[in-house]
Amino acid sequence: MSLITEEILEDVLERLTNLDDEELTDIAQSYSERQPVLFSYIMSATGELSNEEAVNDLVFLFVVVLDCFYALNEDMEIIDEDEIMAMQEKQVETMERLEAMTNTEDQLELGLSYLASQVHLFDYLSEMCEATDEKDDEDESNFTIDDAGIAFGCLKVVVDLLTESVEEGE
């Protein structure tokens, strides 16, 4: 399996966080052309988010994900809508099985962590999608609890599809 290492993730984050808004917009536009269906999928999810900052964060996280995968394989196939639908169904089935097997939310979270194919990337995404009920100065999140679920769910679909695409290209 092609794994996004901590080094790849750190390199991508260092590069992207040092760009201005216009440069980030240009990269997002480039990725919307390289993966138009995935970009449309993410953009459709932004309509469900509660605020503009959460929308911007989701688009940024999508760019981070794509940048990491393109670091592994520049020539990935374009993901199509059928693949997205199939992955969504697969993840719903997995969640239903896990919920039926476990009794507590902690066990469910533990079960999901073992399913993560890209450990370093999912650790980062989990941290970035963490919601807060109340915003404080030190640990501010732009995601509400509902936003966090939407964002993480969409990004999980994207990561799993891109993982499969990279593996098929090897």
Q: How does the helix and strand content classify structurally?
A: mainly alpha
Q: Mind telling me the C-alpha Rg? A: 16 Å
Secondary structure tally: strands: 0
Number of helices: 8
Q: Rough shape?
A: globular
Strand content: under 5%
Give an overview in words.
- The chain is mostly helical.
- The chain has one domain (6-168).
- The protein is built from 8 helices and no strands.
- The chain has helices at residues 6-17, 21-34, 36-46, 52-72, 81-101, 105-115, 119-128, 145-168.
- Helix 3 (36-46) runs antiparallel to helix 8.
- The protein is globular, with a radius of gyration of 16 Å.
- The model has no long low-confidence stretch (mean pLDDT 86).
Strand-helix topology:
Layout: H1 6-17, H2 21-34, H3 36-46, H4 52-72, H5 81-101, H6 105-115, H7 119-128, H8 145-168
Helix pairs in contact: 1-4, 2-3, 2-4, 3-4, 3-8, 4-8, 5-8
What labels would you give this structure?
single chain; 170 residues; mainly alpha; 73% helix; 0% strand; globular
Summarize it.
The chain has one domain (6-168). It is built from eight helices and no strands.
